[in-house]
Amino acid sequence: MSNTAATSAEYEQLSNRAELDRLLTAIAGGDKDALGQLYHLTRGAVYAMALSVLKNAHDAQDATQDTFVRVWQRAEVYRSQGSPMAWLLTVARNLARMRLRQSARQGELSEEEWNAIPASAPAVTAEDKAVLQDALATLSDEERQIVLLHAASGLKHREIASMLKLPLSTVLSKYQRALGKLKSQLEGEDRS
Questions:
Q1: What CATH number belongs to 1-110?
Q2: Mean pLDDT, contiguous 10-residue spans, the chain (192 residues)
Q3: What is the pTM for the complete model shown?
Q4: What architecture (CATH level 2) is domain 124-192?
C-alpha cells in the first residue's frame, strides 16, 4: 500500500511539474491564459514565500503580483531542466528580498494581514492566529521561511534546500529545531 501511495505521490509531482513546464513554455510564447492558469495553481506558494521574507501581507501581495509580472516578462529564460516551482519561488524570493531592502523594514503580522493569507489555508480562529504569530516570532528568519515553505507551500525539504541554497541536512535540522521551538512556545501558552 505504501508503495502505491509513494508511486501516486511521485506521479502527481511529475504531472504537476510537467503541467508547470507546459504553462511556462506557453507563457514564453505570449499565452495570457497560461499565465492565468499558472497564477491559479501557484499563487498560494508564491504568496507564502513572499510573506516568509517580508513578514508584511500588503508587501507580500505586491511581491506576489510582481512575481507573475516578472514571469510574464522573463518566461523565456526558464529552462525545463529543473523544478519549475523552485524557479518560480526563486523569482518570488528575489523580488521579496529586493522589496525588503528597498523598504528596510520588518514587522509582525496584523490581524488584517493574517486574514490576507490565501483561502486555501486552513481556517484558524483569531485567537489561534495570535498564538501562531507569537510562536512564529520566536523563530529565526531562516527557520520561519523553512517552516512556512514546508507547511504553507507544501514544498519538500529537498526543494526548500535547493531554493535557499542550503544543504538538505541543514534544512532538516533547522526545521526540526523550529518545530521544537514552536512546540515549546505553544505548550507554554497552554499552561498559562
A1: 1.10.1740.10
A2: 50 72 93 94 89 83 94 88 84 88 56 48 62 78 83 78 85 91 76 48
A3: 0.60
A4: Orthogonal Bundle (1.10)
